[in-house]
Amino acid sequence: ERLDEASHSNRIISTYNQAEDNINVVVRVRPLNHKEIKGRDISVIQFPGNGQVLVEHLPNGGSAHKSKLFSYNVVFEPAATQEDVLQFSGIKRLIEMAVQGFRCTAFCYGQTGSGKTHTLTGPPRLFDRKKPSYSDAHGLVFRSFMYLFKLLDEKSDVNFILKASFLEIYNEKVIDLLNPGSARKPLAVRWSKKARGFFVENLFTVDCEELDDLTAVLEEGMRNRSVGSHNMNDYSSRSHTILTVHITSEQPAENGVFISRSGKINFVDLAGSEMTKKTQSEGKTLEEANNINKSLMVLGYCIASLSDRRRNNHIPYRDSQLTKLLADSLAGNGVTLMIACISPAMSNLSETINTLRYAARAKRIRTKPIVLMDPREALILTLKREVNVLQSENEHL
Ligand code: ADP
Ligand code: MG
To answer: Considering only CA atoms, which residue is closest to atom 10 of ligand 1?
Structure first.
């Protein structure tokens, strides 16, 4: 009873700061579900405020009272709405930065059933063909699309080109969710010298002129995700999806030249975090982990390596498809938002603590964002500098 009080508190969101860091970590706690309530499961999560999560429990039914306190940028309590997550998670800053030419990633991490897909896309019924296009249940991706278009409408002097793609990584195979035929013939991930990053060969990228086009990409991908899987939950707990919006802007500069910038934002729905432990507990090497979930393990290594700056260690982006595709935003070109999803239930305690620890480690990442400049723009800046030098030389004559 004492533990349950927290869920009746009327605070919904608690914030430590709206940090300007290059990685922000927020936690979303889902409500207890019907099954848990019926089974007399209780909440072990309390919310002391200031972006803190307190986990209270009596280990092994004993009387020793144990509690653990974790801190994040923002904590969303069970009563927080989908709109709250848009407004307060920091995602709006990522969208703004993607428009300015940065590469940004928002990912949901957590055990199966903790609310990752709910947070990103909302309940599956939204993607039935007959359903209305808007609902309170819509998740962060759809809301981000709306915010993106609002931003673009405000910048009528700039010409924007939007493209979107939606892929799935299952057992290290990349499948195009906009081209279900690719399930039989997985796509290759290659390095591009020109783009200075990895890309997926032959991935459909759809031109999106309006909000409906982006929404269609989301809907089509969500429908294709479940195709061919007998047990949707088992399948989605082992696969990652990445929906990417590429934003290229062209702004007229002096002398009829255009300044072009390309940013992007990835929305990543990760495999269930319990998969990592399953791999490790079966004593498999990284190579053997392939069959279960290599990408999730390597993401953990990459995040751990990034946080530990004293050890000048090699960051193993190339070791998994997921980290290859996220390398550009994790490694220093952008901003990352991690949304750690947890269940409040006593029965999920050990996975919840794993997620809270993983999330707390990720917060130590410090990367330095840089704008990706088009070669033409770099040239313009060089020319401008030269003109300035010549002008000041003239003034001194
Ligand atoms: P995951 O993708 O992490 O496996 P889901 O997003 O599918 O988990 O969530 C599991 C179940 O819990 C779904 O039925 C979902 O609708 C529900 N759920 C998750 N988060 C919330 C929330 N914040 N509010 C209400 N229901 C939620
Ligand atoms: Mg899911």
So the answer is: 113
Residue nearest to atom 14 of ligand 1 (CA): 123
Residue 9, pLDDT score? 37
Burial letters 360-383, b for 16+ CB under 10 A, else e: bbbbebebeeeebbbeebeebeee
Asked whether the beta carbons of 200 and 326 are under 8 A apart, the reply is no
CA torsion through residues 370, 371, 375, 378, sign: negative
Residues 66-86 as b or e (16 or more Cβ within 10 Å = b): eeeebebbbbbbbebebebbb
Segment 220-273, tens digit of pLDDT: 999 888 665 555 567 778 889 999 999 999 887 777 777 888 999 999 999 998
User: Which of helix, strand or coil describes residue 246?
Assistant: strand
Which of 32, 118, 121 has most ligand 1 atoms within 8 Å of its beta carbon, as the pocket-test mutant?
118
Indicate the Cα dihedral angle 54, 60, 62, 63, nearest 10°: 0
Residue 6, pLDDT > 50, answer: no
What confidence score (pLDDT) does residue 157 get? 83
pTM: 0.85
Q: What is the DSSP letter of 262?
A: E
Q: Is 124 in the pocket of ligand 1 (CB under 6 A)?
A: no
- Say whether the ipTM exceeds 0.90: yes
